[in-house]
Write a structure and sequence with these properties.
Blueprint: H1 2-11, E1 15-19, H2 25-34, E2 40-44, H3 56-71, E3 77-80, H4 83-96, E4 101-103, H5 105-115, E5 120-125, H6 127-132, H7 134-142, E6 147-152, H8 156-161, H9 168-183, E7 188-191, H10 200-207, E8 212-214, H11 216-230, E9 246-250, H12 254-264, E10 273-274
Parallel strand pairs: 1-2, 1-3, 2-9, 3-4, 5-6, 5-7, 7-8, 9-10
Helix pairs in contact: 2-11, 3-4, 5-7, 5-11, 9-10
Length: 280
């Protein structure tokens, strides 16, 4: 009986999700859709966004602090919902902490490697993710014949955070960024930053219907579901009415975060708490 209670307690524990800011909410949203019974603790590092232009050492230090903070909430697993942090810090985190930690790069790379028909795969992401060549590494392990073309799109993040999802300025920026990938005859394009799925319709319009867009947020949620299922940690209890299922924390600009989150999470979110992440 004691063992059964302990297992149920573990199943009932929350999932930790973190990102450099608001982009990881696209991953959060997909997890909500795929495994709706789960509780989540989300942390957005809004004081130190963006991560894409920072060094590997800095990002790894930030990620360690965030994992330490999430551990204080007894999370059962952690999702690094940031491509740059997945590229630079995931391996160190997995070696350092005794808890399952997954990133967003490998699930997206796997689908792209399986989806491409002509072997030409585009990756759009931050400078950090493109510079790490992590997508190239994963894709070529699974599909050695594939050719990967990376393109850093640093302006996409501020445009998304400004809420300019369908603005003519955003379309013009997308056209400029994606022109060289179109010239490479890509048939698959990975949205390699968690902000980018929010620009999906604009990006699809620019590259055309012949190009399949891969959203790592969706693939990560599926991977997480399979991981928890394999470990017998899926939460089988439906949340009770009125229970606060999810909690949100940020390192700065809570009001701005709330406004943005409410625009993309269907039923809105509770007020995020601001914490001093440097204390962890």
């Amino acid at each position: 009986m004691m063992e059964a209670n302990k297992l149920q307690q573990k199943k009932n524990a929350p999932i930790g999700v973190f990102d450099s800011g608001v982009g990881g909410l696209t991953v959060f949203r997909e997890i909500m859709r795929q495994i709706p019974n789960e509780k989540m603790i989300y942390f957005g590092d809004t004081a130190r966004v963006p991560y894409g232009s920072k060094s590997k050492n800095t990002i790894t230090r930030f990620a360690r602090q965030i994992v330490r903070f999430l551990r204080t909430h007894d999370v059962k697993t952690i999702v690094v919902a940031c491509n740059t942090a997945s590229a630079y810090a995931l391996e160190s985190l997995q070696a350092e902490f005794d808890i399952p930690i997954i990133g967003v790069v490998e699930p997206g790379a796997k689908v792209a490697a399986e989806t491409t028909r002509n072997g030409n795969i585009g990756v759009i992401a931050t400078e950090g993710t493109i510079g790490s060549r992590i997508y190239n590494s994963y894709i070529n392990q699974m599909n050695p014949e594939a050719t990967i073309y990376g393109k850093a799109c640093p302006l996409f993040v501020p445009l998304v955070e400004e809420g300019w999802l369908k603005d003519p300025v955003t379309r013009e920026v997308a056209s400029r960024y994606l022109a060289e990938l179109k010239d490479k005859d890509i048939d698959t394009l990975i949205l390699g930053c968690t902000h980018y799925p929010l620009l999906r319709s604009t990006i699809q319009e620019v590259v055309g219907d012949r190009v399949t867009l891969v959203n790592p947020a969706y693939e990560t949620a599926v991977t997480l579901k399979n991981l928890l299922s394999g470990m017998d940690l899926l939460n089988t209890e439906v949340p009770t009415q009125g229970e606060q299922q999810h909690k949100f924390f940020v390192s700065d600009k809570a009001e701005r975060f709330l406004e943005f989150a409410n625009s993309i999470i269907e039923h809105g979110i509770p007020n995020p708490q601001t914490i001093q992440i440097e204390d962890y």
